[in-house]
Amino acid sequence: MPDALKVSKHIVYHPLKQQGRQSKTRRKDKATTNSKHNFPVAENLLKRQFSAEKPNQKWVSDITYNWAEEGGLYLAGILDLHYRSIVGWAMDSTMKTQLSDIKIEIFQDEENKKNLGQYVMEGAKIESGIHRINEESGKIFRANEYEKNKFRFGFSVEGQGMNGIKKYFIQGLLTLFPSMNNEKNSADLYVKSTQTGVDNTPAYGLIITNSNSRIEQVKSGMLYSRLVLQAHALGLVMHPPSQVLQEYPEMEEQYRKIHNDYAPNGGTIQMFFRIGKPTQEFPHSMRRDVVDLVDRN
User: Quick check: 133 and 120 in contact, CB under 8 A?
Assistant: First the structure.
């Protein structure tokens, strides 16, 4: 192996430029701490005692910077020293103290999981008792494989936690005896499956915006889609039990309550979702090919 040569960077730069190449430069680290300031410094109350006897007794926080293809993001997290797990986090493109127009909050502590789980159940119970919504759901329910392949959108028994032989058995019964899928049975099954989901939810998330403009709605949808893709890449699953965010009269009280609890300063909760690791494998629900949605005229 020949000895390494020491040359000027300009000697390397010009031949690379002629070949249409460039060196890969290391990104500079983003500073997230600035100790050279005249602002008041909070007293060190923790004093390196990193254990807690009960929840919400001691929280610690830090901030870091993550590079992504679309640009960098600052990530701030809060850890409960009793659970030794993250109870809240937020991301933004800047470190400014004021709120951005959109934020994500994740809740893993028992108190918030219980509270948010109650909202999920109340929303499910209210929605399952509304006749017009049950009618709408009935129109997009796919009872068998023929209907799923024909329409490629809607929902089926997989969404109620059924798979394998049991799935095909239930599909056969619903095909032969459609009356089995009446409004009451469907509502009862929906509430029961929702309760099972709540009982096995390790974390909830909220996407909150400052107001409720169309731009913020679109940005929230785009952010949620990116979260779903990233979650799947990490082996996680997400589900949006967003009934309490529906803006119809029957849900008005729950909508107001959850906003008072989690967006008290006039913000809007755009998305409400569960997130965790799957304990069982289920078939993917039917989806239309995105090409079919493109207007080719």
Answer: no
What is the Cα–Cα distance from 88 to 247, expressed in whole angstroms?
27
Name the average pLDDT for the chain. 77
Q: Give the confidence band of 6 by pLDDT, cuts at 50, 70, 90.
A: confident
N-term to C-term CA, the chain:
62
CATH of domain 59-117+202-276: 3.40.109
Rounded to an integer, the average pLDDT of 41-61 is 84
pLDDT over 70 at 99, yes or no: no
What's the pTM value of the predicted model, to 2 decimals?
0.57
Q: Give CA 10 to chain center in angstroms.
A: 48
281 against 259, higher pLDDT: 259
Q: What SS3 state is found at 8?
A: coil
Judge contact between 183 and 131, C-beta under 8 A.
yes
Measured between alpha carbons, how far is 216 from 210 in angstroms, rounded to an integer?
8
pLDDT confidence of 257, banded at 50, 70, 90? very high
Taking the alpha carbons of 267, 270, 274, 275 in that order, is the dihedral positive or negative? negative
CB 156 within 8 A of CB 142: yes
Domain span(s) for CATH 3.40.109 in the chain: 59-117+202-276
The string of DSSP codes covering 148-168 is HHHH--SB-GGGGT--HHHHH
- The Cα 282–Cα 262 span in angstroms is 32
